[in-house]
Design goal:
- The protein is built from 48 helices and 17 strands.
- It is elongated.
- α15 packs antiparallel against α16.
């Protein structure tokens, strides 16, 4: 024992258990964890070290003294009297002194009674009287054994309560012993004792208590249904408030068995218990757990919070610790991780004063999960290993499954996805051998997350298929889209995008347009680790989508959190920029596609690079751009670079573009826009476009997808008097309703969440130019009304603003939908239709353009083989002519681009085209049949909804964005 120590005021910097571990190592001259030998002192020291080695919460000093004196009985012998005297202390504050004894409160109060000086207090601690006070505190020998056991049970002294209950006789003592074993985690022993217990002579109160114990006991062993006989006995024989307690046990049993209807029925029958001051907390706790089972964390927090607030002094320590733990789980499910950690710290402090393993296997285990979710992994693995050892020894298979899941999550948090997969496979094997399905879905979800990080999309998708139910609740909201997208399920990823700061970022990345620069500022709403992990996920899904300064910040945060694997992935994308430049410079002959590829490989796919001149405009890198801009004169026009931040690498890329890129030569008007053909229907449409361009009238371009509607719109713009102005485009099908309104008409600061500054819409930005609205049939009704005002009055009003602004633009619309039918059904405004369809231009599909297929084929062959001569075999030309080309010119261009790349000998053959011999040739394969079925399903839904994607999406049970993605993927546009 140390004596003569003078303490300084204030909280110590180190936690008490750290000082105790250092003292143990000093006394026994051995590193912590290696104290060997058979002596009693060494045995006690090993137990003390084992209890103190967890590092998540500080050890209460008085509780440490209690544990030491309980386990080291020899300290009460005469040779250690001087050491016991060191427990006495004296506070001196402002000249006033106060005596103190380290240890439990009851022991302290007995020793301080009648003592006036520190010298007298130390003398009492040296005397045998101190040991008698300690024994009276522990044994309470004046009370009957069962009453003593009950009091000890309420105080959390389960070991002593069990010994007293075992020494007594009768079914009441046996029932108390079962409760003690259950709270000590000795589940198998408690189950055997429960099976031997004769319930005939038990009263209603004992039966009500045993029903609760039986549900907890059997549920933790994975066989909750075995508790039903005890619950039914309690329901038959309990009365009054005890009957309500039995009903709550029945509700708990129904919840463990997954019968939510029966759970709600029992809760409703037990509702009068909520008005009983002594039992209200039990009903509110059951209602909170029921809300968690229904995935309603807000209601769970409300019920459990009120139970803690109103009834914390009406329950024993074990019940209070359980209630705080349940409240922490509810707060975590609601997304309040900081509040959940505070609640768990309360639970841990209460469990520290209880016997048994629940401090490690429940409260600290839940705290470990929270720390993992917040990226704070120190000390977590040690807790999980200890919990797994204890749960395995006690037969707590449900707790063991949870431990195994958390170990896999720990490996993910440390950036070790391969090791996480090994942990998942091992856990699934063990659970399968025990026929236990607890946490099986969560383990498959963790496997899907790890496989997605490793780029194994097919395996990740199969792991998600093995889950029962969806992944909601197993990951943070911002992780769910990454889980689906990295498994190759972009449509499901769009559906899983929830609200919150990550929603707009995911919608931008999954929609292919990239997030707005202002949206990245919303990362500040997340905790740093979660925000950094989100940036890494976005980069894995869409490389180059994150601004470089965000990626650098995220890499630093992940490195500090111990996730070096993700940090290295981000750093690799950053350091790879100069390698991409070096590879580009090493190529002697460069093609027109090399610059966009250079920007992508360097990690700047989100930048915009284009060339502009009064009569021409060419987009080189079609990124979203940003606030910073750089310009340089080139070939009578301007080369323009826009990005969120133009750093040294971007400046070097811009200089290379200025040196190497040249605008395409201007030929005839039709060919300059890329419209090639001699079909009379096409020539008539182009002539009509040229003549309408000279008139200030709105134009509506109709035609199937891929027929060149946007090219004709550019032709109209550059043939009109507005050619000196801008041509701005918007595709209505790729954006949500709120984004369409904002992009078209602009918004004021604060108009909606994320609108941190004023923004002009494209009608204002076009300024004496042209606005091209693609997929006009998907325009929301609200936007249709506002567009009509632009056409009639030349006025716009930004979202969230009352001021009217004048605009002078020409509107060109395009769609492949039957607007007349949509107008007749009320899904498209009739007045807007007639206002837009003043000048109608209809483009023929490729299958109706006769010899144009040959002209286009030769054009694309020359375009994609600029450095060599590529020819086409006769069979390949026949295959091209036999194909129906549902994607029209766009599909033909894509087909020939791939074929030219595959034709190494300069001759494109049938095998390079990848086109079927006939439409029936490929219908026999499994994948093609699935593809055909999906195509028919989506097409039928669109036909039934007359082309309205929102209505078709409701028929199919998916979001409109997911349906739009499927329409493009299945080539139904």
């Amino acid at each position: 024992m140390l004596r003569g120590v003078v303490a300084r005021p204030g909280r110590p910097l180190a936690w008490p258990q750290k000082s105790l571990l250092e003292l143990a190592a000093l006394l026994f001259s051995a590193p912590v964890g290696e104290i060997a030998g058979r002596g009693e002192a060494r045995r006690v020291a090993r137990g003390l070290v084992e209890r103190c080695r967890q590092r998540l919460v500080p050890l209460a000093p008085d509780d440490g003294v209690r544990q030491l004196l309980d386990s080291a009985g020899f300290l009460w012998e005469e040779p250690f009297a001087a050491g016991r005297a060191a427990l006495a202390g004296e506070y001196v504050v402002a000249g006033r002194s106060r005596l103190w004894v380290a240890g439990p409160g009851a022991f302290r109060r007995r020793l301080l009674a009648g003592v006036a000086s520190a010298r007298g207090l130390r003398g009492r601690l040296r005397s045998p009287e101190a040991r008698s006070h300690w024994r009276r505190r522990r044994e309470a020998s004046c009370a009957p054994p069962v009453d003593s056991a009950r009091r000890l049970l309420a105080r959390g002294r389960f070991e002593m309560a069990q010994r007293i209950a075992e020494s007594a006789r009768g079914v009441e003592a046996a029932a108390l012993g079962i409760r003690c074993r259950t709270r000590l985690g000795r589940l198998e022993a408690a189950r055997r004792a429960l099976s031997r217990l004769d319930p005939t002579h038990l009263g209603g109160d004992e039966l009500a208590e045993l029903a609760e114990t039986a549900v907890s006991l059997h549920a933790n062993q994975g066989r909750a249904e075995a508790a039903r006989p005890w619950v039914e006995r309690a329901l038959r024989r309990a009365s009054g408030s005890l009957h309500g307690r039995a009903l709550l046990s029945a509700a708990s049993l129904a919840r463990e068995c997954g019968d939510l209807v029966e759970m709600d029925r029992c809760l409703q029958l037990a509702r009068p218990a909520a008005d009983d001051a002594g039992a209200a907390w039990r009903w509110r706790q059951a209602a909170g757990l029921a809300a968690l089972a229904r995935r309603d964390p807000a209601a769970a927090c409300r019920h459990l919070g009120r139970a803690v607030r109103d009834s914390r002094r009406r329950m024993d320590r074990f019940e209070a610790a359980s209630l705080w733990n349940d409240l922490a789980v509810a707060r975590a499910d609601a997304g309040d991780l900081a509040g959940a950690e505070r609640a768990l710290l309360h639970a841990v402090r209460l469990h520290e004063r209880l016997d048994g393993p629940r401090r490690t296997t429940l409260a600290l285990c839940n705290l470990a999960e929270l720390r993992l979710r917040r990226g704070r992994v120190d000390g977590v693995r040690e807790i999980l290993d200890r919990s797994a050892r204890r749960n395995r020894a006690d037969g707590n298979w449900r707790g063991l499954a949870y431990d195994r899941e958390l170990v896999a999550r720990y490996e993910l948090a440390r950036g070790r996805p391969e090791r996480a997969l090994e942990r998942v496979e091992s856990a699934l094997d063990e659970l399968g051998r025990r026929r236990l399905h607890e946490r099986e879905s969560a383990l498959h979800a963790v496997a899907g997350r790890a496989l997605g990080w490793l780029g194994r999309a097919g395996s990740a998708s199969r792991s998600l298929d093995r889950m029962r139910g969806g992944p909601a609740g197993l990951f943070e909201p911002e992780e769910l889209p990454a889980l689906q997208a990295l498994a190759g399920r972009r449509a499901e990823a769009l559906e899983s995008v929830a609200g919150g700061p990550a929603a707009s970022l995911w919608l931008g990345v999954l929609g292919g347009v990239g997030p707005e620069p202002a949206e990245w500022g919303r990362l500040a709403e997340l905790e740093p680790y979660r925000a950094a992990r989100l940036v890494a996920d976005l980069e894995l899904v869409a490389p180059g989508s994150a601004p470089r300064r965000r990626a650098r910040w995220a890499a630093r945060v992940l490195e500090r959190a111990g996730n070096r694997w993700l940090a290295r992935r981000l750093e690799g994308s950053l350091s790879g920029a100069w390698s991409a430049v070096e590879s580009y410079l090493a190529v002697e002959r460069r093609s027109a596609s090399d610059l966009p590829e250079l920007f992508r490989r360097a990690g700047y796919a989100g930048a915009f690079l284009g060339w502009r001149r009064a009569a021409a405009e060419h987009v080189i890198v079609p990124g979203a751009g940003g606030d910073e801009e750089r310009r340089a004169a080139l070939a009578g026009g301007s080369l323009v670079l826009r990005a969120d931040r133009i750093d040294g690498v971007l400046r070097a890329l811009f200089a290379l573009a200025l040196r190497d890129w040249r605008p395409p030569p201007l030929v005839s008007a039709a060919r300059a826009e890329g419209v090639i053909g001699s079909c009379p229907a096409l020539l008539s449409a182009l002539d009509r476009a040229r003549r309408l361009a000279a008139r200030e009238v709105p134009i509506l371009i109709l035609g199937e997808t891929g027929t060149g509607k946007e090219l004709v719109a550019r032709h109209v713009h550059r043939s009109s008097s507005r050619q000196g102005g801008s041509l701005l485009s918007l595709n209505s099908a790729t954006l949500s309703e709120s984004l369409v309104l904002s992009d078209l008409f602009g918004h004021a600061r604060g108009a909606f969440t994320g609108a941190d500054r004023d923004r002009a819409g494209i009608f204002e930005a076009a300024r004496d130019g042209t606005v091209f609205l693609d997929e006009l049939g998907d325009l929301p009704l609200q936007a249709q009304g506002m567009l009509l005002r632009v056409l009639q009055e030349g006025e716009v009003r930004r979202l969230g603003e009352s001021r009217v602004r004048r605009v002078d633009v020409r509107v060109i619309g395009a769609t492949h939908r039957p607007l007349e039918r949509l107008t007749a059904d009320g899904r498209f405004r009739q007045d807007l239709f007639y206002r837009l369809a003043v000048g109608r231009i209809e483009l023929p599909p490729l299958r109706e353009r006769g010899g144009d297929l040959e002209l286009l084929t030769d054009h694309f062959l020359r375009r994609f083989s600029s450095d060599r001569r590529v020819g086409l075999t006769d069979r390949a030309r026949d295959r091209l002519a036999a194909h129906d080309w549902p994607g029209n010119v766009r599909e033909l261009a894509n087909c020939l681009a791939v074929a030219v790349a595959l034709a190494e000998d300069g001759v494109v053959s049938v095998r390079h085209l990848g086109l079927p011999e006939s439409e029936a040739a490929n219908r026999g394969g499994y994948h093609q049949r699935v593809l055909d079925f999906r195509r028919r399903l989506v097409a039928d839904a669109l036909d039934a909804a007359d082309g309205n994607r929102a209505a078709a999406a409701r028929r199919l049970g998916m979001s409109r964005q997911a349906l739009s993605y499927l329409v493009r993927a299945l080539r139904l546009e």
